[in-house]
Design a protein that fits this description.
The complex is a heterodimer. Chain A is α+β, with helices and mostly antiparallel strands. Chain A has 19 helices and 16 strands. In chain A, α10 runs antiparallel to α11, α12 runs antiparallel to α13 and α15 packs across α16. The chains are: A alpha+beta, B alpha/beta.
Chain lengths: 731, 197
C-alpha cells in the first residue's frame, strides 16, 4: 500500500502561501485605527434584561465607566446598557462601530432626555449579513444620547470605535478577503485531506477532517460569518459558536485519540478523553435544551482539554509515539494563538491587527502541521509497513530459498528415485524379456514335445504296417521260389511224361514228393495271406499318411477349410496306441457336417492334447483297460430355425476328475499336476490360446472321481473372414 | 550233458498285438525255427510254462502291458530265456527300462531286417544254451564233489579197522580216487577253456 502525497514538494509553496496569508489575515480582527479613545463608555447593568430605554436614562446609579479599547464585561445573562459619548464633533460620515459580530443582540437608541428618538437593531441573533461589522450612524443632534443595549450568551466584549464610513467598508472588504482566504485555505486543506482520507482510509484522517471543518466554522462564528450559513435561523446564530466550539472540541479529542493512538501508547488517558468528550456532549445538550450560556461555559470548561492534550502529546512522545512531536508542535501553536486571543480579549495584550490575525493563522498552522503530521504518520506507517513488507519479503525470500533448497533436494531425491525406478524398470523389462524368451522356449519345447509325441505315434503307427509289408514281401519271394521249384519239377515231369522219357514217372514222383515236402497247399495259403498283409499294410500306411495330410503344416497359421471329424480321426490315428491301446476309445462323429475354417494343424494339436490328457486321467484311475473309457464326439448345434450354428466337439473321460481349484487353473500357464519334468504345464494354456484364436467357447466340467468333459463350441462362420485367400495355399 | 546243440531246433515265441506282424514273423522264420506266435500276453505266459523256449520276442507297445513289463513278469520263472524287444519306435525311457527292468538281450526296431533278426535269434539261442549248460555243468561239478566227499568218508571208515589188507585196499581206493579227481579236473579245465573263448 502506498501512502502519502509528496509533501517534500508541496511544502515550499505552502509555506509561501502561508506567509501571504498572514499578511492578508492581519485585517481580520482589526477595527479602525483611529479615535478610539475619543469615545466614553458608561455601562448600566440590566440583570433581568427588562429595562426600557426611558428607565435607563433615569437610572443614574450603577453607572460604570468602561475603560480600554476592548472592554470586556464577561459572560453574563444580564443585558447591559452602554451610553456612548464623546462622538460629538466627529465628522458626519463617522460611524460608531461595535466590532463584535458574536453579540447576540445590539439595540441602539437615540435618546432625547427620556424620549426615544430612534432605534436600530443589530446582532448575531438577527442574522443580517450587512451587519458583520455593526456600525451605527451618529445622532444628528449632538445633545442627544446614544445608548447601546447589548445582550449575549457570549462574552460581552465591546470594542467600540468611531470610524469613518468608508473605513468601515474598507475594513469589511479586507475582512471579507481575509475570511475568504482563510476559508480558501481551510477548504484546500479540507479537500486535499478528504482525498487523502479516502485514499488511505485512516480513521485519524476523518477525525482530522472533522477538526478542520469545525475549527474553520468556529473562526467563521468568531467573525460572524456563520450567519451567511444559517441566515436568519436565530437559534443557530445564538448557539452557533457554542455548538461549533463543542463540535470542534469533540473533533479535536476524537482526533487526538486516533492520531496519538491513545489506546496503544497512553491507555490511562483514554478515560480523561472520554470525560472531556462528555463535557462537550453536555455543552451540545445544553445548547439544544435552550441554555446557551451553560453551553458556552461548558465549552470553555472543555477548553481544559487543550493543555491536557498538550501534556498527553508529551507523555505519548516519551512513550515513543513518533507522531506525538508533530501533534505537540501543532497543538502548541494552536494553544499559543488561543491564549493570545484570550489575552487580547481581556485587554492584557494590545489589540493590533497582527494580534487579531493570530488565532486564524494559528488554526491554519495547526491544521497544516496536523496534516503534515498525518502525512508523516502515514509515512511512518508506510515505513513500518515497508519494513514489515521488507521483513515479510525477506522472510518470503528466505522461505523461497528454503523451498528452493527443499525443491532441489526433492528433485535430487526424485531423480534418484526415478533413476532407481528406471533401473528397476530396465531390470524388470530385462526379466520380462528373459521370461518371454523362456516362455517362447517353453512353448517351443512344448511344441517340440508334442511334435515328438506325434512323431513317436506316427513312427509307431507307420512302422508296424511297413514292417509287415516288407517282411511279407521277403517271405513271399521265398514262398514264390519254392512254388516255382514245385512248378518247375512238375513241368519237367510233365514234359518227360509227354515225351515218354524213361524217367518220366520218376520225375513225377519226385515232383509230387517235393510238393508234399514243401507243403504246397500251405505255401499257397501263406502266399495269399502274405499278399493280403502287404495290401493291408499299404492301405494302412496310406490311411495314416492321409490322416497326416489333414493336419496341414504343424506350425501353419493358414486357415483351411477342414472337416472337424477328419481332424479328430486323424488326431486319434496319430496318437495311435497312446490312445487306443490305453483306454476304450468310443468315437462318435456326426456325418455330413460342413468344414470349418481353422488352423488345422493347431486344432489337431488341441484335440490330441485333450485326448491324451483324458486317457492319462483314466489310466490314473483304472487298473483295467476295459474300465477306462474315453468318448470323443462331434455334433452340429442348430438354432431354433434348424439352421446350423456351431460345431460341438466333446471329449469325455471317466478318469480321476479335478476339484474346482484345479479346474479353474488348468488353462494357467505353467500350472501342472504332473510330476516335475513330466509336463511343462503349457499344454492346456497353449490349447486355450489356440481355441481363443478360433473364437471357440470352452466349457470344462469335472468332478473328482467321476471324470472330466471338455466341450468345445466352434461357431460356423467365426473364422471365415480373411481365411479365403489361404484356401488354395493350404490345400 | 548234451552236445547236440547244433542239431536242436530253436524254439521261438513272438508276442505282438498285431495279427499281421505275427503272421509275417511266422512266414519269415518258420523254415529255420520252431515259431510260436501269440497276440495276448497272458497266453504267452501260459505257452512259456508249457514249452521251453530259447528266445522270446515281444513288441514294446501293446495295450494293457508293454513289452518291458511282460519281460519283467516272466523273468522269475524263466531267467535263462533270451529276451528280444521289438518296437516300432523307441523313446529313451523305453530303452532304459528295457535294459534295467526287462534285462533285454537285444533291441530290434521295426521294420526289422530279416537277416539281422535271424542272427539275433540264433545268438539269443546260443546265449540261452550256454546259460543252461553253465547251470548243468555247475550241477555236475557239485554232484562229483559230493560223490568224492562220500568216498573219502567211506575210506576213512575202512582205515578205522587198521588191518594190513584194509590199508592196502584203502591205498588202492585212493589211487582210483586220485584218478577220478584228475579226470574231473581235466573235464572242468576243458569247460573253463570253452567258457573263456
Amino acid at each position: 500500500m502506498r501512502f502519502g502525497p509528496p509533501y517534500g514538494r508541496v511544502k515550499v509553496p505552502l509555506w509561501a502561501f502561508l506567509l501571504m496569508a498572514v499578511a492578508a489575515l492581519s485585517g481580520c480582527g482589526s477595527g479602525s485605527g483611529t479615535a478610539v479613545d475619543a469615545l466614553v463608555l458608561e455601562a448600566v447593568e440590566d440583570p433581568s434584561g427588562t429595562l426600557r430605554p426611558e428607565q435607563v436614562h433615569l437610572k443614574q446609579g450603577g453607572v460604570e465607566r468602561l475603560e480600554g479599547a476592548r472592554p470586556n464585561l464577561g459572560s453574563t445573562d444580564a443585558a447591559y446598557w452602554v451610553r456612548v459619548s464623546g462622538w460629538q464633533g466627529a465628522p458626519r460620515n463617522a460611524r460608531v462601530v461595535l466590532d463584535n459580530p458574536t453579540l447576540d443582540s445590539i439595540d441602539v437608541f437615540t435618546l432625547n432626555g427620556a424620549r426615544v428618538l430612534g432605534s436600530v437593531r443589530s446582532g448575531a441573533a438577527y442574522g443580517n449579513p450587512e451587519d458583520l461589522i455593526p456600525s451605527f450612524a451618529l445622532p444628528l443632534n449632538e445633545a442627544h444620547e446614544l445608548w447601546f443595549r447589548v445582550r449575549s450568551t457570549k462574552p460581552l466584549l465591546l470594542p467600540f470605535s468611531l470610524t469613518q464610513v468608508d473605513r468601515v467598508e474598507a475594513t469589511r472588504r479586507r475582512r471579507d478577503l481575509a475570511v475568504a482566504l482563510y476559508t480558501g485555505m481551510v477548504l484546500a486543506i479540507l479537500i486535499y485531506n478528504t482525498f487523502l482520507a479516502f485514499t488511505t482510509g485512516q480513521r485519524a484522517y476523518f477525525s482530522y477532517l472533522f477538526v478542520v471543518l469545525t475549527v474553520g466554522l468556529v473562526q467563521w462564528c468568531f467573525n460572524g460569518y456563520d450567519r451567511l450559513i444559517w441566515g436568519d435561523f436565530s437559534w443557530m446564530a445564538v448557539n452557533g459558536l457554542a455548538v461549533m466550539g463543542a463540535l470542534s472540541g469533540l473533533a479535536a479529542l476524537v482526533f487526538a485519540r486516533h492520531f496519538l493512538e491513545v489506546r496503544r501508547y497512553t491507555p490511562r488517558w483514554n478515560l480523561m478523553i472520554t470525560l472531556l468528550l462528555w463535557v462537550y456532549a453536555a455543552a451540545l445538550i445544553s445548547a439544544f435544551l435552550g441554555m446557551p450560556s451553560v453551553a458556552y461555559n461548558l465549552v470553555n470548561l472543555g477548553a481544559l482539554s487543550a493543555p491536557a492534550m498538550l501534556i498527553l502529546s508529551i507523555v505519548s512522545w516519551r512513550k515513543g509515539n513518533p507522531s506525538a512531536p508533530w501533534y505537540f508542535v501543532a497543538w502548541s501553536i494552536f494553544l499559543v494563538a488561543v491564549t493570545m486571543q484570550a489575552l487580547r480579549d481581556f485587554g492584557v495584550m494590545s489589540s493590533t491587527p497582527m494580534a487579531a490575525a493570530l488565532l486564524p493563522i494559528g488554526t491554519v498552522l495547526e491544521m497544516l502541521l496536523l496534516s503534515f503530521a498525518l502525512g508523516n504518520r502515514i509515512n511512518v506507517l508506510k515505513r513500518s509497513s515497508d519494513e514489515a513488507n521488507a521483513k515479510a519479503l525477506a522472510a518470503s525470500l528466505e522461505n523461497e530459498r528454503i523451498v528452493k533448497e527443499q525443491n532441489a533436494e526433492l528433485e535430487t531425491r526424485v531423480r534418484e528415485r526415478t533413476e532407481d525406478l528406471a533401473k528397476a524398470n530396465s531390470g524388470l523389462s530385462n526379466a520380462l524379456h528373459d521370461l518371454q524368451g523362456a516362455q517362447d522356449q517353453l512353448i517351443q519345447t512344448e511344441k517340440l514335445a508334442s511334435l515328438g509325441q506325434m512323431t513317436a505315434g506316427i513312427a509307431h503307427e507307420l512302422n508296424n504296417p511297413i514292417n509287415y509289408v516288407q517282411s511279407n514281401a521277403t517271405s513271399l519271394r521265398r514262398d514264390l521260389e519254392e512254388l516255382i521249384q514245385v512248378i518247375e519239377a512238375h513241368v519237367a515231369a510233365l514234359s518227360g511224361l509227354a515225351s515218354d522219357a524213361p524217367d518220366g514217372m520218376e520225375l513225377l514222383a519226385k515232383a509230387q514228393d517235393m510238393a508234399r515236402t514243401l507243403d504246397l497247399s500251405f505255401l499257397i495259403e501263406e502266399s495269399r495271406q502274405l499278399i493280403q498283409g502287404i495290401l493291408d499294410g499299404a492301405d494302412r500306411t496310406a490311411h495314416i499318411v492321409g490322416g497326416l495330410r489333414v493336419f496341414g503344416r504343424m506350425d501353419g497359421d493358414n486357415l483351411v477349410a477342414a472337416s472337424l471329424g477328419e481332424l479328430l480321426e486323424a488326431s486319434i490315428t496319430v496318437l495311435g496306441d497312446r490312445a487306443r491301446s490305453k483306454a476304450k476309445l468310443n468315437v462318435d462323429l456326426e456325418e455330413g457336417l460342413p468344414p470349418l475354417w481353422c488352423q488345422s494343424g493347431k486344432l489337431s494339436q488341441v484335440f490330441m492334447n485333450i485326448i491324451v490328457n483324458a486317457v492319462q486321467a483314466t489310466e490314473s484311475r483304472w487298473q483295467d483297460v476295459e474300465e477306462r473309457k474315453v468318448e470323443v464326439g462331434l455334433s452340429g448345434v442348430k438354432d431354433g430355425a434348424g439352421k446350423l450354428q456351431a460345431l460341438k466337439v466333446f471329449i469325455r473321460d471317466n478318469g480321476t476328475g479335478m476339484d474346482e481349484v484345479t479346474r479353474q487353473r488348468i488353462f494357467d500357464p505353467f500350472y501342472t499336476t504332473k510330476d516335475v519334468g513330466k509336463g511343462t504345464g503349457l499344454g492346456l494354456s497353449i490349447v486355450k490360446g489356440i481355441l481363443d484364436d478360433h473364437g471357440a467357447q470352452v466349457r470344462v466340467e469335472s468332478a473328482v472321481g467321476e471324470g472330466t468333459e471338455f466341450q468345445l463350441l466352434f461357431a460356423i462362420d467365426a473364422m471365415k473372414g480373411g481365411g479365403t485367400q489361404d484356401r488354395n495355399e493350404a490345400a | 550233458m548234451r552236445d547236440n546243440m547244433a542239431d536242436e531246433i530253436i524254439r521261438v515265441l513272438y508276442l505282438d498285438d498285431e495279427e499281421a506282424n505275427l503272421f509275417s514273423f511266422k512266414a519269415a522264420f518258420r523254415r529255420e525255427f520252431e515259431v510260436h506266435t501269440c497276440i495276448e500276453p497272458h497266453q504267452a505266459v501260459r505257452l512259456m510254462d508249457e514249452h521251453e523256449f530259447h528266445v522270446v520276442l515281444s513288441d514294446q507297445r501293446m495295450p494293457r502291458i508293454s513289452g518291458v513289463e511282460f519281460f519283467e513278469l516272466v523273468m522269475p520263472d524263466h531267467p535263462d530265456v533270451s529276451r528280444v524287444l521289438v518296437t516300432g519306435y523307441a523313446d529313451t525311457d523305453a530303452v532304459v527300462d528295457a535294459i534295467n527292468k526287462g534285462q533285454v538281450y537285444r533291441f530290434v526296431s521295426k521294420p526289422w531286417n530279416e537277416e539281422e533278426l535271424r542272427t539275433v535269434i540264433r545268438s539269443g539261442y546260443y546265449l540261452n544254451r550256454s546259460r543252461v549248460q553253465n547251470a548243468e555243468q555247475g550241477a555236475e561239478v557239485l554232484a562229483m564233489l559230493e560223490k568224492l566227499a562220500g568216498q573219502v568218508e567211506a575210506l576213512d571208515g575202512q582205515l578205522a579197522a587198521g588191518t594190513p589188507e584194509a590199508i592196502s585196499r584203502v591205498q588202492q581206493e585212493l589211487r582210483n580216487l586220485r584218478e577220478g579227481v584228475l579226470q574231473e579236473r581235466e573235464r572242468y579245465a576243458q569247460w573253463m577253456d570253452r567258457l573263456g573263448k
